[in-house]
């Protein structure tokens, strides 16, 4: 986890996003790159009451956007400096942070993220316009990299107790590979299997044995969902184990199916109170 991308969105969880990135950078002496996520113009362009976007309105919006970018940059830099993450040239010995002032397009996060070990995004909050699912999904589906989801409240620890929500799937196996830096540094690793969530694949005990080959001491536990949804069961089991990081494959079932019927990934994205590392 030596290179971390942070799409900066103005939201109530921005401190948690930046804090999660800082905790990761401090653990691995990482380089953090912050970039402003520009709100979509159509979502703002109804100010004249008729839905007409005039040149004067566009000019006013562009000036306001430049002001927002400048304020975001100042906030990002002051946040990092307050936590000892310097803005010097990237170094392999100490965490560093740089603001990339590029005015990204809609595709920027998906494209730029391919050069990073993880993309830190905020958990979408019900009733709030940001953080957006657009940014999260671009990072998840277009980068080929894992995302690290920050909860609404900034974490104080990250990766001390790591719980793997194992369901036998390719997606979770891939996420475990991405999460190896965290797993190697963790004080405790638990492979948690909710039996009702399993697809054909190795057992949780076999995953723990596999991790042992890499020098990672892991235990495995099994539970039943009971009357809980699968996502609810996974979060509750992680909480009961004292997890400060959850490892979970994203969308073992299709996004469309989860949108219609719900699913573990959708529940975790909506309700997690701890950081989650995901990949698809």
Write structural notes for this entry.
- The structure is a single chain.
- With 280 residues, the protein is α/β, with parallel strands linked by helices.
- A 10-stranded mixed sheet has the order 3-2-1-4-5-10-9-6-7-8, sandwiched between helices.
- Helix content is 39%, strand content 19%.
- Strand 1 (3-8), helix 1 (14-28) and strand 2 form a beta-alpha-beta unit.
- It is globular and about 60 Å long.
- Residues 42-47 and 255-262 have low confidence and may be disordered.
- It has 2 domains: 3-150, Rossmann fold (3-Layer(aba) Sandwich), CATH 3.40.50; 161-279, 3-Layer(aba) Sandwich (Rossmann fold), CATH 3.40.50.
- Regarding CATH, which class of the largest domain? Alpha Beta
Strand content: 15-25%
The CATH architecture of the largest domain can be named as 3-Layer(aba) Sandwich
Radius of gyration: 20 Å
Please write the string of helix (H) and strand (E) elements: EHEHEHEHEEHHEHEHEHHE
User: Helix- and strand-based class?
Assistant: alpha/beta
The backbone outline, from C-alpha atoms, is globular
The CATH superfamily title of the largest domain: HUPs
Descriptive keywords:
single chain, about 280 residues, alpha/beta, Rossmann fold, 10-stranded mixed β-sheet, 10 helices
